[in-house]
Amino acid sequence: MIFTELSVAGAFLIDLDPHADERGLFARAFCAREFAEHGLKDTFVQANFSHNIHRGTLRGLHYQRAPHAEVKLVRCARGALFDVVVDLRPDSPSYGRWAGAELSADNHCALYVPEGCAHGFETLVDDTDAFYLVSAFYASGAEAGMRWDDPQIAIDWPIYPPVLISPKDAAASLFKEYAP
Protein backbone atom coordinates (compact mmCIF):
# COMPACT_ATOMS: atom_id res chain seq x y z
CA MET A 1 0.00 0.00 0.00
CA ILE A 2 1.03 3.56 -0.64
CA PHE A 3 0.26 6.02 2.19
CA THR A 4 0.00 9.73 1.33
CA GLU A 5 -0.68 12.09 4.23
CA LEU A 6 -3.28 14.77 3.49
CA SER A 7 -3.50 18.36 4.75
CA VAL A 8 -5.48 17.19 7.80
CA ALA A 9 -2.97 15.80 10.30
CA GLY A 10 -3.19 12.02 10.52
CA ALA A 11 -5.51 11.64 7.50
CA PHE A 12 -4.15 9.51 4.67
CA LEU A 13 -5.07 8.62 1.13
CA ILE A 14 -4.16 4.97 0.77
CA ASP A 15 -3.53 3.59 -2.68
CA LEU A 16 -3.08 -0.03 -3.58
CA ASP A 17 0.24 -1.45 -4.71
CA PRO A 18 -1.25 -3.87 -7.25
CA HIS A 19 0.26 -6.89 -8.90
CA ALA A 20 -1.31 -7.08 -12.35
CA ASP A 21 -1.32 -9.71 -15.07
CA GLU A 22 -3.67 -10.90 -17.80
CA ARG A 23 -6.24 -11.98 -15.18
CA GLY A 24 -6.50 -8.52 -13.63
CA LEU A 25 -4.89 -7.36 -10.42
CA PHE A 26 -4.34 -8.38 -6.84
CA ALA A 27 -3.47 -6.08 -3.95
CA ARG A 28 -3.69 -5.90 -0.19
CA ALA A 29 -6.49 -3.53 0.85
CA PHE A 30 -5.54 -3.65 4.52
CA CYS A 31 -2.57 -4.89 6.52
CA ALA A 32 -2.41 -4.34 10.29
CA ARG A 33 1.40 -4.42 10.24
CA GLU A 34 1.66 -1.72 7.55
CA PHE A 35 -0.91 0.46 9.31
CA ALA A 36 0.96 0.13 12.63
CA GLU A 37 4.26 0.99 10.90
CA HIS A 38 2.64 4.28 9.79
CA GLY A 39 1.35 4.96 13.32
CA LEU A 40 -2.25 4.30 12.28
CA LYS A 41 -5.00 2.42 14.11
CA ASP A 42 -4.85 -1.21 13.04
CA THR A 43 -7.88 -2.69 14.81
CA PHE A 44 -11.44 -2.32 13.51
CA VAL A 45 -14.59 -3.61 15.20
CA GLN A 46 -17.30 -2.84 12.67
CA ALA A 47 -17.76 -2.72 8.90
CA ASN A 48 -20.38 -0.42 7.35
CA PHE A 49 -21.88 -0.36 3.88
CA SER A 50 -23.69 2.55 2.22
CA HIS A 51 -25.59 2.19 -1.07
CA ASN A 52 -26.48 5.49 -2.73
CA ILE A 53 -28.93 5.52 -5.62
CA HIS A 54 -28.46 9.05 -6.92
CA ARG A 55 -25.53 11.17 -8.06
CA GLY A 56 -25.18 14.17 -5.76
CA THR A 57 -26.22 12.37 -2.57
CA LEU A 58 -24.40 13.90 0.38
CA ARG A 59 -23.90 12.03 3.67
CA GLY A 60 -22.28 13.79 6.57
CA LEU A 61 -20.46 15.32 8.16
CA HIS A 62 -20.60 12.68 10.93
CA TYR A 63 -18.50 11.87 13.99
CA GLN A 64 -18.80 10.31 17.44
CA ARG A 65 -17.86 12.29 20.54
CA ALA A 66 -15.26 10.93 22.98
CA PRO A 67 -14.93 8.43 24.49
CA HIS A 68 -16.53 6.81 21.43
CA ALA A 69 -14.45 8.66 18.83
CA GLU A 70 -13.66 6.43 15.88
CA VAL A 71 -11.20 5.92 13.07
CA LYS A 72 -12.73 5.17 9.68
CA LEU A 73 -11.13 3.50 6.68
CA VAL A 74 -13.38 4.33 3.72
CA ARG A 75 -13.33 2.73 0.28
CA CYS A 76 -15.63 3.07 -2.73
CA ALA A 77 -16.70 -0.39 -3.90
CA ARG A 78 -18.86 0.79 -6.84
CA GLY A 79 -19.18 4.11 -8.61
CA ALA A 80 -17.36 7.21 -7.38
CA LEU A 81 -17.55 9.61 -4.46
CA PHE A 82 -15.83 12.67 -3.07
CA ASP A 83 -14.77 11.81 0.49
CA VAL A 84 -14.06 14.49 3.09
CA VAL A 85 -12.42 14.64 6.52
CA VAL A 86 -12.72 17.71 8.80
CA ASP A 87 -10.34 18.14 11.74
CA LEU A 88 -12.24 18.74 15.01
CA ARG A 89 -9.24 18.26 17.33
CA PRO A 90 -8.47 21.61 19.06
CA ASP A 91 -4.85 20.57 19.74
CA SER A 92 -4.21 19.60 16.10
CA PRO A 93 -2.13 21.79 13.77
CA SER A 94 -4.90 21.37 11.15
CA TYR A 95 -7.85 22.14 13.47
CA GLY A 96 -10.83 23.41 11.49
CA ARG A 97 -9.40 22.42 8.12
CA TRP A 98 -10.71 19.85 5.67
CA ALA A 99 -9.20 17.54 3.09
CA GLY A 100 -10.96 15.60 0.38
CA ALA A 101 -10.22 12.97 -2.22
CA GLU A 102 -12.06 11.17 -4.96
CA LEU A 103 -12.53 7.50 -4.19
CA SER A 104 -13.81 5.24 -6.92
CA ALA A 105 -14.16 1.64 -7.93
CA ASP A 106 -11.63 2.44 -10.66
CA ASN A 107 -8.89 4.12 -8.61
CA HIS A 108 -9.16 1.66 -5.65
CA CYS A 109 -8.06 4.32 -3.13
CA ALA A 110 -9.15 4.50 0.50
CA LEU A 111 -9.34 7.39 2.94
CA TYR A 112 -8.10 7.00 6.52
CA VAL A 113 -10.11 9.30 8.81
CA PRO A 114 -8.41 9.76 12.19
CA GLU A 115 -10.19 9.90 15.57
CA GLY A 116 -11.61 13.30 16.39
CA CYS A 117 -12.47 14.16 12.80
CA ALA A 118 -15.81 14.49 11.06
CA HIS A 119 -16.40 12.51 7.88
CA GLY A 120 -18.74 12.82 4.94
CA PHE A 121 -19.02 12.10 1.25
CA GLU A 122 -20.90 13.11 -1.88
CA THR A 123 -21.62 10.64 -4.67
CA LEU A 124 -20.35 11.58 -8.11
CA VAL A 125 -22.35 9.00 -10.08
CA ASP A 126 -25.56 7.03 -9.64
CA ASP A 127 -25.42 3.70 -7.80
CA THR A 128 -22.36 4.35 -5.66
CA ASP A 129 -21.42 2.02 -2.81
CA ALA A 130 -19.14 2.95 0.08
CA PHE A 131 -17.66 0.34 2.40
CA TYR A 132 -15.81 1.34 5.52
CA LEU A 133 -14.18 -0.13 8.57
CA VAL A 134 -14.70 1.57 11.94
CA SER A 135 -12.53 1.31 15.06
CA ALA A 136 -15.30 1.86 17.65
CA PHE A 137 -18.78 0.47 18.03
CA TYR A 138 -21.63 2.82 17.14
CA ALA A 139 -22.92 4.66 20.22
CA SER A 140 -26.13 6.55 19.50
CA GLY A 141 -25.61 8.93 22.44
CA ALA A 142 -22.21 9.95 21.07
CA GLU A 143 -23.39 10.55 17.50
CA ALA A 144 -22.95 14.10 16.22
CA GLY A 145 -22.79 16.02 12.99
CA MET A 146 -21.40 19.17 11.45
CA ARG A 147 -23.00 21.18 8.65
CA TRP A 148 -21.88 20.17 5.17
CA ASP A 149 -22.09 23.80 3.99
CA ASP A 150 -20.50 25.51 6.99
CA PRO A 151 -18.96 28.76 5.67
CA GLN A 152 -16.12 28.62 8.21
CA ILE A 153 -14.99 25.21 6.93
CA ALA A 154 -15.86 26.03 3.28
CA ILE A 155 -15.68 22.56 1.73
CA ASP A 156 -15.46 22.71 -2.06
CA TRP A 157 -18.07 20.04 -2.87
CA PRO A 158 -18.00 18.97 -6.54
CA ILE A 159 -21.81 19.00 -6.84
CA TYR A 160 -23.23 22.13 -5.23
CA PRO A 161 -25.80 22.18 -3.90
CA PRO A 162 -26.19 18.44 -3.32
CA VAL A 163 -29.11 16.72 -5.01
CA LEU A 164 -30.09 14.74 -1.91
CA ILE A 165 -29.29 15.20 1.77
CA SER A 166 -31.13 13.98 4.86
CA PRO A 167 -33.00 16.54 6.98
CA LYS A 168 -30.81 15.52 9.94
CA ASP A 169 -27.58 16.24 8.02
CA ALA A 170 -28.98 19.50 6.61
CA ALA A 171 -29.76 20.73 10.15
CA ALA A 172 -26.45 19.72 11.79
CA SER A 173 -24.42 22.16 13.91
CA LEU A 174 -22.04 24.79 12.63
CA PHE A 175 -18.32 24.59 13.40
CA LYS A 176 -18.49 27.68 15.65
CA GLU A 177 -20.97 25.75 17.84
CA TYR A 178 -18.66 22.74 18.13
CA ALA A 179 -17.55 21.84 21.64
CA PRO A 180 -15.18 18.86 22.03
From TrEMBL:
GO terms for cellular component: cytosol. It catalyses: dTDP-4-dehydro-6-deoxy-alpha-D-glucose = dTDP-4-dehydro-beta-L-rhamnose. The active site is at residues 62, 132. The keyword Nucleotide-binding does not apply. Its EC number is 5.1.3.13. It is an enzyme of class 5 (isomerase). GO terms for biological process: dTDP-rhamnose biosynthetic process; polysaccharide biosynthetic process. Pathway: Carbohydrate biosynthesis; dTDP-L-rhamnose biosynthesis. One of its GO terms (molecular function) is dTDP-4-dehydrorhamnose 3,5-epimerase activity. Belongs to the dTDP-4-dehydrorhamnose 3,5-epimerase family. Homodimer. Catalyzes the epimerization of the C3' and C5'positions of dTDP-6-deoxy-D-xylo-4-hexulose, forming dTDP-6-deoxy-L-lyxo-4-hexulose. This is dTDP-4-dehydrorhamnose 3,5-epimerase. It comes from Acidithiobacillus ferrivorans.
